[in-house]
Amino acid sequence: MSTFTRRSFIGKAAVAIGSFTALQKVVGADRSKSDPGPANPGLDGQNPDSIWPPPTDSKSLVQNFKYPFSFANKRTYEGGWSREVTIRELPVSKDMAGVNMRLTAGGVRELHWHTSGEWAIMLYGTARITAIDADGKSFVADVKKNDLWFFPSGIPHSIQGLNPDGCEFMLVFDDGEFSESETVLLSDAMAHLAPEVLAKNFTVGEKAFANVPKQELFIFQTEKSAAGALGKSPKDFGFRTMEIQPTKQTKGGEIRIVDSRNFKVTTTAMAMVTVHPGGMRELHWHPNADEWQYYIAGKGRMTVVATGNKARTMDFQEGDVGYVQKTLLHYIENTGDKDLIFLEMFKSSLYQEFSFSEWLAHTPSELVMAHLKVDKATYDAFPKNGISITPL
Ligand code: MN
Ligand code: MN
User: Fold this and answer.
1) What angle do CA 126, 129, 131 make, to 5 degrees?
2) Which residues are catalytic?
3) Which 8-state DSSP code applies to residue 34?
4) Per-residue model confidence as pLDDT tens digits over 78-101
5) Ligand 1 center to residue 342 CA distance, Å?
6) Are residues 77 and 213 part of one domain?
7) In a domain? residue 253
8) C-alpha of residue 303 to centroid of ligand 1, in Å
C-alpha cells in the first residue's frame, strides 16, 4: 500500500471501530506513523483527523477551530447551571460566543439584559420566556425543543423552566467577548443603588426594599411561575423552527434557514443542517460573516481551507463548538452511522453562501477544464443548484 492509502485505511478503520488501538497499528518497516509516547486513548480515538491528518492537510499550522462544551467551566446553582464557550476558550471565535444553560422546572434565569443580541434554541424540555419590547409592551411565550427566540440588545428578559423537567438551551451571542456572567441583572442593579434613591424612584418607603438580595441571583429556584398575559406585544420574539418546510431537501439530508426574511426580529441567521449517514454538506463558503457551529447530534468531520496554503481537518461530535472564518472554504461530512445534526450561526440578518460546485458550474467550462484538467463529462456532472447536501 502507498502511504496515502495505508494512512486513509488506518484512519477509516479507527473511525469505524472508534478505537485508539487501530490508530496505532502501523505495519511494515516505516515507523513514521507510530506514536509510542504518552497518549490519551479516549480523546485520540475521538479525533482521528488530528492524530493522523489526511495528506491533503497543510504542514503550515492552523489555529484550533473546535472546542467541546465538555471542557467548559460550569457555574452550578439550585435551579440549574450555565457554561460558555467564548473567545477565552476558543481564540478564533472573535465574532460569536455560545452559552449552554439548564433550568429545572421552576428554575429561573434572573431578569436581565445585555449589550449583545441574544439568539437561542431549545435543546430539551420547555420554558417560558418573558420580555418587554421597545414600546414597553409585554411579551410572554412558551418554547419547546427546536423553537428559537431572539432578544435584541438592551431588551430585558427572563427564562423559566416548566414542568415536568425544565429545559436545556443554547444561547448564541453576536460578540466573541460576550460573557453570561457579565449581564445587567435585576438584583445586581438594585444592590448597587442607595435605599433613598430606590424609594424616590419607585415612590415607596425605604423599608420596602429591605430584603433585596445583596448578591446576584443569576439562576434560582422558585415556586412562583412567570405568569403574565401571553403575547401582548405585537412583536414575536419567538420562532417555531419545525413549523416551516426545509429550505432544501436532498437524499443526503436537509437544511432549514431562519433569518430576518422569515424571523423578522433577528439579526442573527441560522442554518439547521441534518446530514444522513454517508452524506456531506457540500463545499461552500460564506461571503458575509464568520460561522459559529454547534453540533447537536451525530459525528462529522470538517476541513477548512484557509488562505496562504493552509488547511486543517478536525472531527466533531455532539456538544462540540466549531468555527469557520468568513470566506473560508469548508465541507462537513457525516462520519458516523446516524444523522449528523448541527447549527451554522452567523452574525448577520441574512444567510448567504457560495456553493463551490455551483460557482464552477456557472463559470465558462473551458476555463474550469483548463484549470482542473478534467474532461467535459466530469464538468457537466457538477451539481448546479447550490445550498446542498450530497448525495442529491
Ligand atoms: Mn439573556
Ligand atoms: Mn457553512
Assistant:
1) 175
2) 344
3) -
4) 999 999 999 999 999 999 999 999
5) 22
6) yes
7) yes
8) 33
